[in-house]
Amino acid sequence: MRERDGEGIPELPTLGTGVHLLETDDSVRAAVHSLVVDHLLIHSGEALWADSHGHARTQSLVRLAPSRRFLDRIRMARAFTAFQHQTLLARLADRVDGDTALVVVPAFDHHYRSDDLTRGEPERMVEAGVGHVEAVAERHDVAVLVTRERDDDLTDPVAGIADERMRVETTRFGPRFVADGFETLVYRGHDYVQTTLAFWSRVLEERQQARESLRREVLA
Questions:
Q1: Which of 91, 116, 130, 170 could join 157 in a cystine, given CB atoms 3.0 to 4.6 angstroms apart?
Q2: Which segments constitute the Rad51-like C-terminal domain (predicted)?
Q3: What is the reported pTM?
Q4: What is the mean predicted confidence (pLDDT) over 26-51?
C-alpha cells in the first residue's frame, strides 16, 4: 500500500490487516524496528513481539521511538530455543485482543535450523508455528509482520500464509522498499546515506511531523 506523508519524505509501506512477509537481511534489520514504530505512530494499541536471534534491540527502538514512554506499547518476549519459540507462537492467540495493533515475528525459522532437533522436527515445528500465526491473522483484525532468514523448503509454509510479500534492499541513497503496488520513490536529494539508525530516526521524525501538520490542517 502506498502512503505519502509529505513531499521529500521517503515513503514506507503501510501494514494492513493480514500477514506481511518482509524479505530482508541483517544489514537492514533496523527496517523491522522502523516499520513497527511507524505502524504504532499511525495506529493506537500495542505491538506483540515474539523475538528470536536478538532481533528486538532496545537501544535501536529507543533511538527510533519519539519517547521512552512510547516503548510501553511494545510487548516483547524472546525465545532462545525452538521449543520456547513454539510456546510463544502458541500463546499468541491468547495474548492478542482488541488493543493489539501489530504482531511481530522476526527470523521465524532461526531456531528451527538448530542441530539439536531430530530429523523431521524442524518441518513439523515450522508447520505448527505457521498454523498459530495464521490463526491469529484469521481470527483478529490485526497486522502481522514476519521475516525469515532463508528462502528455502523449510520456510515455504511461511511464504504460503503471506497476504503480502515485501522486500527491502540497501542502496547508496537509503533503504528501498518494494511490494505489490508500492515502491520507495523518494530519496533525500544528493545527501547519500546508508541504512543506519540515524537515517531511520530522521525519516520517522519527519513523517510524524508531517502527520501532525496534516491533522492541524484538518482540524482548522
A1: 130
A2: 44-149
A3: 0.83
A4: 86
